Amino acid sequence: MIVIAIDGPSGAGKSSTSREIARRAGWNYLDTGALYRAVTWLALSLESDDPAKIIQGLKTSPIRFVANPQDPKVFCGDTDVTEEIRTARVTDAVSALSAMPAIRQELLVLQRKIIDKADRGIVVEGRDIGTVVAPDAPMKVYLTADLDARAARRDAELSDLSGGVAVVGQSLSERDHTDSTRAVSPLATASDAVIIDSTLLNLEETVERIWELLKERNLLGLPIVAILGRPNVGKSTLINRFLGRREAIVEDTPGVTRDRVQYECEWNDRRFIIMDTGGWESKPDGISVQVSAGAELAMQEADVLCFVVDAQVGALDEDDILVQELRKAKKPTLLVANKVDGDSDESDAHALWNIGLGEPHFVSALHGRGSGDLLDLIVNELPEVGGAQAQDGYRRIALIGRPNVGKSSLLNALAGESLSIVDDVAGTTRDPVDSLIDFGGSIWRFVDTAGLKKRANQASGTDYYATLRTQAALERCECAVVVLDASLPISEQDLRVITMVEEAGKALVLVMNKWDLVDEDRRDQLDKEIDRHLDQVEWAQRVNVAAKTGWHRDRLAPAIRTALDSWERRVPTAKLNSFLGALIGATPPPVRGGKQPKIYYATQAGIAPPKFVIFSSGWIEPSYRRFIERRLREEFGFPGTPVMVAIRVKERDKENG
C-alpha cells in the first residue's frame, strides 16, 4: 500500500492537489487539517478548552473521515460537520487547539488507523505527515508558495468573507508562525521530502509535477495481466514467449500450472505483471476446484484479461461459462487464439469470433508468431495505475567502481555492521549485494556491485557476468556512488566507470575513499588529477571518506540527497524562457553559413535526469549548446546530475519567410 505524504503551509494548495492525485490514482484521501477542525468544532460545542474533556467528548462523538477524494466528508458522532468546520469561528480557534500535545496524540492514533485501512494507496496532507504521522511514506512532498500567492488563493476561496488579500496574508503569516514554532510536531520539511514551490504553478501543473515523480519512482504500481483459459491451451508457453525466457513450467500433460504465479514483464518501455493461472474448468473436482477458484481470483485482481483458446481444438461448450465470467468482470479482455502456426490455421481460427469476445488475436506461442503484435495490444490496454506495488519507496543507490577501491568497506561502514565480505584480494564481491541501510535520517536501498575490471566484451568467465550484473544494477539505480581510491592516481578504468554513469543518466556522487592514506603531497597531486580528468563531471558531488575508520561517512547522505533533488528537479516553463531570453539577448548564438539561427523557446521535456529541448530556426553549434548547459547550471543549480540539452530545428512559418 502506497502512502503519499504532502505537507506545507496553509494556502499552498495541498488539499486541491492531494484530492486530484488521489482521484486520478483511484486511491483514498485524508485531509488531517479537517480532523483538527472537527476536534475544534467539538471543543467549541462543549465550550471547553480542557484537553481531558475534549478527549472524553471524542469518545462519545468519535470523528469519522470518509476518505473519498470525489466527496470527502467529516462526521463528529452522527453529525456531518464538513461545512461547519470551514467557518471563521473554527478557523480562528484551530491553531491553539492543534498545538495541544494530548489532542495531537489522540489524532495521531486516528490518522494512522485511517491510513492502515486504505486499500491500494492513500494521499495524506497536513503539517507533520512526513515527519510524524507517516515518516516511512515512500513519497514525501513539501508543497509551498510565497505568502502573496497563498494569500491571493485563499482570498479567492473565501470570496466576500475574507476582508481582502492583505488581511488574509496577515492571518496566514500568523498561522505559519504558530505552526512552525509549536513545541509538538511543528511544521517542518522532512529530510527526504521533495520541495515543490507552486508560486508559479497552477493546480494542473502542480499535480503533473507530483505525478511525474510517482511515475519516475515506480510508485503507481504495475498493471496486472491475467492469462486465463482451459487446461493445456498453452498459457505457460505464451508467458515464456512474452518473457523471452523459460520461466513457467511447460509440459504436454494438462494441469501442470496450479497456482497463480506472477512474472515481471517489459515491452515498449512499459513494465507490467503477467499472472499465469491454472486451467479453469466449469465442473472442477479434487484439486482442480482450488485451481479454478484461483483463476477466478486472478480475474478480480487483474487490470487486463487475456482469454487463451486452443485454435486447433476451437471453442468448447465450457468456454461459454468462462466467457460469461469474463464479461461480469467488466475489464479489458483480449481473445487470444493460440497454436495458429500458419495461414491455413488462421482461416480456421476466424470461427472464434462466435465466442462473442470480439476479434480473436492469432499467435503461436511455441514459434513466436504474432506475439509482438499481441504485446502491443496488451500494452495499449494497460491502465496508468496498476494493482501490483512495484516499489517500496526506498531510494536505490549503487556503489560502483573498479576492484579494491573499498566499496564493500564503505557499505559496511554505512550499515555499522558487516554486510559484504571484505578482503585485500581484488574482486571479492561478484554478485550485487542489495541491502536496506538506515543512515543520515533515511532508509536507503544500497547495492554493492562487483568491481569493473575491463569492458564487458573483453572480460571472460566470472568477470564477464559480474560486469553484466553491475551494469544491470546501474540501470536500476537512481544514484550511483562512484568510489575512487584517493591514495592512487585516477586511472582510465575510473574514468570509464564515471562515463558509464553519465551515459546512463544517473545522479552521481564521487567518493574519494582511503583518505586516511593521503598525505600532503598526494593531495596536491590529486587536485591536479581532478582538474585534468574530472572536468567533464565538475558538477558531481564529491565526498572524502575513510571507509575503514568511518571518517566523514555522515557527509554522504546530504550529498546523495542533493544529487537526487537535482536529478528530479523541474524548472517552471516561465522561469526557463525568461532565463533563455536574457541569455540570448546578452550572447546570441554564433552565425553559421552567413545566417544567425533564431532561438524561439525552450521546454523541459523530462526529469531523471533533467532534459531540455530548445526550438530554433537552424542548427546550433555544439559549443553553444555546452554554453547553454553551463549557464543553466549557474542559474538553476543541478549539482550531482547530468543535464541533457537537445536542439530541435523548426521550419520557419511562411509568413515569417
From TrEMBL:
Gene3D superfamilies for the chain:
3.30.300.20, P-loop containing nucleotide triphosphate hydrolases
Main enzyme class: transferase
A Pfam family per the record:
Cytidylate_kin
Q: Which reaction does it catalyse?
A: dCMP + ATP = dCDP + ADP; CMP + ATP = CDP + ADP
Q: What is its EC number?
A: 2.7.4.25
Question: What are the protein's UniProt keywords?
Answer: ATP-binding, GTP-binding, Kinase, Nucleotide-binding, Repeat, Ribosome biogenesis, Transferase
**Segments forming domain EngA-type G:** 223-386, 395-568
Checking SUPFAM superfamilies in the record gives: P-loop containing nucleoside triphosphate hydrolases
A GO term (biological process) for this protein?
nucleobase-containing compound metabolic process
Single GO MF descriptor: ribosome binding
Record-linked InterPro entries: Cytidylate_kin, Cytidylate_kinase_dom, G_ENGA, GTP-bd, GTPase_Der, KH_dom-like, KH_dom-like_a/b, P-loop_NTPase
Signal peptide residues are none
What protein does this entry describe? Answer: GTPase Der
Source species, please?
freshwater metagenome
Name the lineage.
unclassified sequences, metagenomes, ecological metagenomes
